[in-house]
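Protein modeling request. Please complete all fields; requests missing the sequence field cannot be processed.
Requester role: graduate student
Desired output: 3D structure, token encoding
Chains: 1
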Amino acid sequence: MNAPTPSVNQVSQTDTALLQRKVSFDFSASPLHWIPNDPYTSHFISVIHTILPAGEFFFCRLYNKALPYIDDEKLKQDVKGFIKQEAMHAKAHTGGISNFLENQEMEVGSFIKQVEWLFDSVLHDKPFGRKVPKQLERDWLVLRLGLIAAVEHFTCVLGKYALENTQWDHEGADPTILDILRWHASEEIEHRSVAFDVYQHLGGNYPMRYLQMLIAFPVVIGLWVKGSSHLMAQDSSIASKRPKAFGVYFWREWQRKSKSGHLPSLLWLARQASRYFSPSYNPAIEASTEQAQAYLAQSPAALRAAAINAA
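Delivered output (311 residues):
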């Protein structure tokens, strides 16, 4: 059951304490095709290891900058928890790069540099090296916070998708990869309201929110397609099919995999994005904290982290 809609007068809509679970993952037994006999889906999802760390470290930096502007104590505590969770996500997926992809001879450095350029140049405090005028610094901050709120809508709905997808389990997917995906998904659901709450609290408006999703959606899809096709092109089992980002095979296979329940379709993703355009959009009703915490109560990595913390 989804969470009830909080009062419109309530600044924070987060309904749980945001804890940093200091997880670790051992990828030594995880195969490159972590869904057996399905290299396409395996690479399509594995690319998140190469996209997320740069983005999540950027989130941490930006929300630390936003903290002094937040005058609601509950929201301020939410943001501190959000930062700690995002930092742990970045660290875990960095392990996915070095201990999973690179150990299996996937070249990812060139793509990661492109992702880092987006956050370290385009979305930097000094975009493209140019100083933002003092009177526009707060506006530039709020604009970027709004972009993150749009992206966090995707992480929430994709998190729900990951928790509810049973096809991966039926196909015999690697348990360690499933655990990092679902642990991360669960925490994204836990903090699904924070970015939106901060954007609203700092004066973000609806017209800009509309524009921000129009920017965020193609950027998210573009990175996903570019990065996953880069991995596929290096895999001898699929490279002969020419899985290029602008090739017929890549898009036809995506559609086929979505029909079989292995991946969300592009149309499904577009429909999720469209909900963000509603003036009454509320992230609190997009997913269930109870569902997320039910998984965290059985996640091998989260249980190990809890046991270490309690020792």
